[in-house]
Amino acid sequence: MAKKSAGATKLFVLDTNVLMHDPSSLFRFEEHDIYLPMVTLEELDNNKKGLTEVARNARQASRNLEEIVGTDLINLELGCPLAINGNKHVTGRLFLQTSQVTVELPGLAGSKADNQILGVVLDLRKHYPTRQVILVSKDINIRIKARAMGMPAEDYFNDKVLEDTEILYSGMKELPANFWEKHSKAMESWQESGRMFYRLTGPLCKSFLINEFVFYDFEKPFHAIVRSVEGNTAVLEIVKDHTLPKHNVWGITARNREQNFALNLLMDPEIDFVSLLGQAGSGKTLLTLAAALTQVLDKKIYAEIIMTRVTVPVGEDIGFLPGSEEEKMAPWMGALEDNLDVLNKSDDEAGDWGRAATQDLVRSRIKVKSLNFMRGRTFLQKFLIIDEAQNLTPKQMKTLITRAGPGTKVVCLGNIAQIDTPYLTEGSSGLTYVVDRFKGWGHNGHITLMRGERSRLADFAAEIL
């Protein structure tokens, strides 16, 4: 590899938390070089024991380092090429700290790991005055210290799916007032097994995504789902109106446009993966359970409902819980209980006995599972609901969704404004990741629920607090 001029590439000094957050971060800096202080290696070693995600990542980072450094005794002063295995596109080199650094840090205790890393950065800046030396860390405090000493410091952003969640795909598109003038020229319409289809041609059609909802809310409102897109031509299907009592789902009717779209996705057997985003009280869990019960008990499309969620407490952890897996998960499943109460109330004619019988039948068809035991499983003909999915990392999300066997539908619910996991942000959450990656696939549907429907108190609190 030809050596680049010293000023062309940057030198990134990595903090330990970057490697423990993403072990493959070593291969994410493309043409730039990486420098690892000895303290970073020491901290990796201190964190390698145990079964936690952090320990697992520390071990993987160490394995990656061994592969890069190799077994031959090479001159580490020149650095080791990072282009190994499937990372041939990476042209940077890895440097390890090979000599003791003695830099006086103004007002900082020298023995603390963070301060030693800052010392290394200062020393490198003296050695390479023409190069940009940048500290990369997930720790806010070390970045503030670095900036206070006039050193550039950055967060590690590579795992962010989107820089700004405002541009996250919402699953629907509003059509402009002049839509029909531009798109109705060669329009065809037909009916097929009770469903109404339109084929339109026009400039907006190429921006549609498959299974995206389009709505026109001027005179003669029009709500449809995009079924296929070819160039400037799109086929739209009129959505079923679940706001009407005759089209209720397990006694539940949609209260707004987004809920109606969500029920269309949840009730469509052709859609294998549904993601619903929305604030507290927008009806995500209720709509999903209503659709699941209808399809398990009435239509018998799926054998049973499996519900799982990440067990991240909002306050302190409550420690070990006695009992079986179902009993241990019970405290986390308050949301399930609350929604089942609503769904049971919807059957007025049945009386108390009938309701109790329904309740037992419903209970027998809903299994509550812990995420910890999902590896290696395959779900056949199940309706899998992943609640509070915003607390999952992209890797955990992949593990869960790849459990789906034939005939299984996976529904992810969450609110990316309520992330409880310490190291996830709205941009790097597994929920943001799947919404972004799955959009436009023929068997995927997504909708962002806009309005809360819980109560006037909850809506006011969500808005004002």
UniProtKB/TrEMBL annotation:
<keyword id="KW-0547">Nucleotide-binding</keyword>
<dbReference type="GO" id="GO:0005829">
    <property type="term" value="C:cytosol"/>
</dbReference>
<dbReference type="InterPro" id="IPR027417">
    <property type="entry name" value="P-loop_NTPase"/>
</dbReference>
<dbReference type="Pfam" id="PF13638">
    <property type="entry name" value="PIN_4"/>
</dbReference>
<comment type="similarity">
    <text>In the N-terminal section; belongs to the PINc/VapC protein family.</text>
</comment>
<dbReference type="InterPro" id="IPR002716">
    <property type="entry name" value="PIN_dom"/>
</dbReference>
<dbReference type="InterPro" id="IPR051451">
    <property type="entry name" value="PhoH2-like"/>
</dbReference>
<feature type="domain" description="PIN">
    <location>
        <begin position="10"/>
        <end position="144"/>
    </location>
</feature>
<dbReference type="InterPro" id="IPR003714">
    <property type="entry name" value="PhoH"/>
</dbReference>
<dbReference type="Pfam" id="PF02562">
    <property type="entry name" value="PhoH"/>
</dbReference>
<keyword id="KW-0067">ATP-binding</keyword>
<dbReference type="InterPro" id="IPR029060">
    <property type="entry name" value="PIN-like_dom_sf"/>
</dbReference>
<protein>
    <submittedName>
        <fullName>PhoH-like protein</fullName>
    </submittedName>
</protein>
<dbReference type="GO" id="GO:0005524">
    <property type="term" value="F:ATP binding"/>
</dbReference>
